[in-house]
């Protein structure tokens, strides 16, 4: 009997990560992510899985980002009842992410119903807060390096991936075969986290390719300093859509450094996202504990840019639109697919004094990608808003490894694998990385199709 891998998401896209491991005796799902971006992708969140959720014995969660964790409440609602194996920090961050996701879905459904811009007579969320709460007791925090057996004939250990706090690659052993799933890989230069260790010797590697066709620019601190300085100089404000988990912390670290070096004017910095603020507290706790995942020498001051303000409530958020003085607003979501940042964009985009700074990957079909591609107007809440503000794209703040860093991570394994499966990327990125691994390392690579099943 052969173990199979089935790619149920993140094939041809960077969202919806789900990898089904089927031994014939048990089923393990690695990640349970939401599809995000274009409508045709988001609709896939509503489709049933090709296997009953109740037949899945366990889940391994590599990290807390929504495209890896956001389907968990739906999976539980459909009958999944097994353990969710992950790291301690991922369990804490995922609780924040899932509660926020459920709340936003409830809000969006209510807003659509109230304003009549949904195609459905009675729009409803994919899951609600009660569904999110039901899955949280199923988390089984596991220390990095500890071997666990979440289901029959399968053992797993997690090793740091250096992407966000708690992120991990999953090393899976079953029926005498061993493979690793990278999860999202971090960069060796992450300002807060230690670099990810190389993969162990395995039979197969499943590797992400978000930036599989790109090389990150050098340090974007200078570019950030320039846009902040010129925007404040013309009396405008800077809006930074940022992923609530990790990207907000990276930005606060960058703003602190620029401020302490006198490279940007001192203005209020607002963090406007309940999820980001909750995640910030988790990072602060890890810093107080000096967790070994953190980069050496990092302390609490690293996350204090100076004139920091935390917008916890909806009224505090509304009070920022428009800002009554030049300021910097960091708000989620990072691709502007939802959350408070959408309301800020509605108010700031029409004013040419302002600037919007995109500091992360913008998936196809998202508002962030439209801004990156130079759209003259962006549709939000049923209306088009003109884009007159300056839009700046800075890829140097990404905490995803670029193509060269991924190849470097792969090359550091003690022995070549039999095959590398390249997924979690748009088609051109996955194919480019697969070619590069073949050309530079001489390894066998495969870019799997969505839903494809392969024998291990």
Account of the 3D structure:
By secondary structure, this protein is α/β, with parallel strands linked by helices. The protein has two domains: 4-214 and 399-455, Metallo-beta-lactamase, Chain A, CATH 3.60.15.10; 221-397, Rossmann fold. The protein contains 13 helices and 24 strands. It has helices at residues 39-42, 66-69, 72-77, 88-115, 129-135, 221-233, 247-260, 274-289, 314-318, 340-348, 367-372, 403-411, 427-441; strands at 4-7, 11-12, 19-22, 27-30, 58-60, 84-86, 139-141, 148-151, 154-160, 168-174, 177-181, 204-208, 238-241, 269-272, 308-310, 328-331, 355-358, 377-380, 383-386, 390-393, 419-423, 425-426, 445-446, 453-455. The protein has a seven-stranded mixed beta sheet, covered by helices on one side. Strand 9 (154-160) and strand 10 (168-174) form a beta hairpin. 51% of the residues are buried.
Keywords:
7-stranded mixed beta sheet; Rossmann fold; Metallo-beta-lactamase, Chain A; about 450 residues; alpha/beta; 2 domains; globular
CATH topology of the largest domain: Metallo-beta-lactamase, Chain A
Structural class: alpha/beta
The CATH architecture of the largest domain is 4-Layer Sandwich
- Per CATH, the class of the largest domain reads Alpha Beta
Reading side by side through the largest sheet, how are the strands ordered? Answer: 7-6-5-4-3-1-24
Give the count of structural domains: 2
- Head-to-tail CA distance between termini: 11 Å
Task: Please report the total strand number as a whole number.
Answer: 24
Q: Main sheet?
A: 7 strands, mixed
Instruction: Work out the radius of gyration.
Output: 21 Å
Q: Please indicate the percent range of residues in DSSP E strands (runs of 2 or more).
A: 15-25%
- In one word, what is the shape? globular
Low-confidence stretches: none
Number of helices: 13
User: What is the name of the CATH superfamily of the largest domain?
Assistant: Ribonuclease Z/Hydroxyacylglutathione hydrolase-like
Mean pLDDT: 93
Helix content: 25-40%
